[in-house]
Amino acid sequence: MLGKLVLGGLAVCAVAIFSSWAAPDANAVVSNEYKFKLPLGLDESGIMIPADNPITTQKVELGRILFFDKRLSNDNTIACANCHLPQFGFTDGQPVATGIRGQKGGRSAPASLNRVFSSVQFWDGRAATLEDQSIGPFTNPIEHGFANYEVMLTKMKKIQGYKTMFLQTFGDDITIENVGKAIASFQRTILSGNSPADRFDLGGETAAISAPAQRGLLLFRDKARCTKCHSGFNFTDEKFHNLGIGWDDNKVDLGRYLVTKNAEDIGAFKTPTLREISRSAPYMHDGRFKTLDDVVNFYNQGGVKNPHQDPLILPLELTKEEKQDLVQFLRTLTGEGWKHIAPPSTFPQ
């Protein structure tokens, strides 16, 4: 069960985290406390880490390798990173995700950054933890395509390098639970903060964002009603809302309802973070909007009316200039904390 970590077990300070793998003894568990610094704008009180998966540098490094390894798909063509690329805000730049054999999913790839502040995962919240989310795609026939976890584990256990790493990290053989723990630990280190907006709003840098962006910030907090859902330091309320996506062209995805079976959740999807939003086009759960201007126009008209639309979604009556200012502000949410992340130079053999 997820809970907020009391920051004593997780020190917040700088460290070089992605060093080459090493251990003094292949049979010894190495468990070094993971240390990191939150970029400006992120709040350590919002950190959520399950008690049964404390972060260590070994888990993070192993998780990074797993995240980028295409051998963790049935045909060796798809890694987690295929759909979560740094240059696209840890999405893939496509309307919907693409898996093995070029198969297309029904939803866009959610951004995998700032997940350490997030509870349930996926657009519909079907994964209760980041650990569950981390292993879900492996047995999805459209994504990584394994028939079951045992098939995947059998493949991994033939790689001696992975057997050694899991033994050093967990003191155990390769298990699907430990695969999930390692990938989740890595994902919790993908951060975005210290954006121009943060430096303006919190750092006292009055020139960090332009005058139009400053006007956009005021609109974001007031007339444009953005903070009704995109609230807090991570710009999300972590809740589910029906905006009306798909109701005007008969392409309705039932969203959260497929998980809860509650009528109030029909067509509702989780509010995504807006950090790195200028990198993560196209937008919405089905990737239908190519630009931030398209998104703002959609909200300005009040979404699409339907029997289950969230009452928070109302026409905004923004002028052309106000819409432009709002987009300029959204573009200031591109930050730092993730730029050091890169694929491993080599993979376990």
Q: What can you tell me about this protein's structure?
A:
With 349 residues, this protein is mostly helical. The protein folds into two domains: 44-187, Cytochrome c-like domain (Cytochrome Bc1 Complex, Chain D, domain 2, Orthogonal Bundle), CATH 1.10.760; 196-333, Cytochrome c-like domain (Cytochrome Bc1 Complex, Chain D, domain 2), CATH 1.10.760.10. It contains eleven helices and two strands. It has a two-stranded antiparallel sheet. The longest helix is centred in the N-terminal third of the chain and has 12 residues, at 57-68. The protein is globular. The two termini are 34 Å apart. The model is unreliable at 1-29 (pLDDT under 50).
Layout: helices, strands, pairs:
Elements: H1 57-68, H2 80-83, H3 130-135, H4 149-156, H5 160-170, H6 176-187, H7 196-201, H8 211-221, E1 240-241, H9 257-260, E2 269-270, H10 292-300, H11 320-330
Quick synopsis:
The chain has 349 residues and is an all-alpha fold.
Whole-angstrom Rg: 21 Å
Structural class: mainly alpha
Sheet with most strands: strand arrangement: 1-2
Query: Number of DSSP strands?
Result: 2
The CATH topology of the largest domain is Cytochrome Bc1 Complex, Chain D, domain 2
Helix content: 25-40%
**Count of individual helical segments:** 11
Secondary-structure element series: HHHHHHHHEHEHH
